């Protein structure tokens, strides 16, 4: 239903309400258009208030793409260097390693190597006692899916959760057995700005998350 609605809105025409990069600026042409503040909009039967007023130009109404994408939970990305707007799930993954920050983030080969492979960058929680091994991710509503790899070392992780930190909605909950190797966990994160990821760890247990092979798309 959301995809059909998005297609209908795209047919109406949209504009992308983000900063204009050098590529886009070189292709801009001046036009005379009008802010259409009297237009009422509904998304899936519900009233929708845009962050920017629609624009009418040559009998076509254009809606702000960012606002509509947020309302439909459709990820949208803008690559200023390429002059490219991308809607929906990306065909190529974007590693979660970029911008990752946590006290258990390590590049030490002794900790980044698992089953004979060096993953270069890893979240490796080897703390003491029963604890919650956790970290934050910041997809910023740009992606539809999180593909996360994780392994339990020495002891099982009976609960591993991906939570939307703004809504507190549990997006995924699973377990990771210490003998199953790297487990691939796929999570629908459409509309999520920040994620809180945690595993309930027992004393002596460790959580291994390779950042280079975990990705958004």
Q: Name the poorly predicted regions.
A: 1-11
CATH topology tier name of the largest domain: Jelly Rolls
Computed Rg: 21 Å
| Count of DSSP-assigned helices | 4
SSE sequence, one letter per element: HEHEEEEEHEEEEHEEEEEEEEEEE
Q: Report the average pLDDT across residues.
A: 86
Largest beta-sheet characterization: 7 strands, antiparallel
Instruction: Write down how many β-strands occur, each being a DSSP E stretch of 2 or more residues.
Output: 21
What share of residues are in beta strands?
Answer: 35-45%
Distance between the termini: 21 Å
CATH architecture of the largest domain: Sandwich
CATH class of the largest domain: Mainly Beta
| Structural class by helix and strand composition | mainly beta
* Principal-axis shape: elongated
CATH homologous superfamily placement of the largest domain: Galactose-binding domain-like
How many domains would you count in the coordinates? 2
**Percent of residues in helical segments?**
10-25%
Organism: Saccharibacillus sacchari
Protein name: Stalk domain-containing protein
Describe the protein in words.
The structure is a single chain. The protein has helices spanning 2-12, 22-25, 65-72, 109-112; strands at residues 14-15, 34-35, 41-43, 46-48, 55-57, 60-64, 76-79, 84-87, 94-95, 105-106, 113-114, 117-118, 122-125, 131-137, 145-153, 157-164, 170-176, 183-188, 195-201, 206-210, 215-216. With 217 residues, the protein is mainly beta. It has 2 domains: 2-87, no CATH class; 94-216, Galactose-binding domain-like (Jelly Rolls, Sandwich). The strands form 6 sheets. Strands 9, 10, 13, 15, 18, 20 and 21 form a 7-stranded antiparallel beta sheet that branches. It is elongated and about 65 Å long. The model is unreliable at 1-11 (pLDDT under 50).
């Amino acid at each position: 239903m959301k995809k059909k609605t998005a297609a209908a809105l795209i047919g109406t025409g949209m504009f992308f309400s983000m900063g204009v990069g050098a590529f886009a600026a070189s292709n801009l042409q001046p036009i005379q258009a009008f802010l259409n503040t009297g237009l009422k909009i509904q998304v899936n039967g519900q009233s929708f208030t845009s962050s920017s007023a629609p624009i009418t130009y040559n009998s076509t109404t254009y809606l702000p793409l960012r606002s509509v994408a947020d309302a439909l939970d459709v990820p949208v990305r803008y690559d200023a260097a390429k002059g490219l707007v991308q809607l929906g799930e990306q065909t190529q993954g974007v590693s979660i390693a970029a911008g990752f920050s946590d006290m258990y983030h390590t590049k030490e080969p002794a900790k980044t190597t698992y089953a004979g492979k060096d993953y270069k960058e890893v979240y490796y929680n080897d703390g003491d006692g029963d604890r919650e091994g956790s970290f934050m991710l910041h997809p910023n509503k740009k992606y539809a899916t999180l593909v996360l790899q994780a392994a339990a070392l020495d002891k099982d992780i009976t609960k591993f959760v991906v939570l939307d930190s703004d809504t507190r909605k549990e997006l995924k909950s699973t377990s990771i057995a210490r003998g199953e190797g790297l487990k691939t966990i796929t999570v629908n994160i459409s509309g999520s700005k920040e994620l809180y990821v945690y595993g309930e760890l027992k004393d002596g247990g460790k959580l291994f998350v390779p950042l280079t092979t975990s990705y958004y798309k």
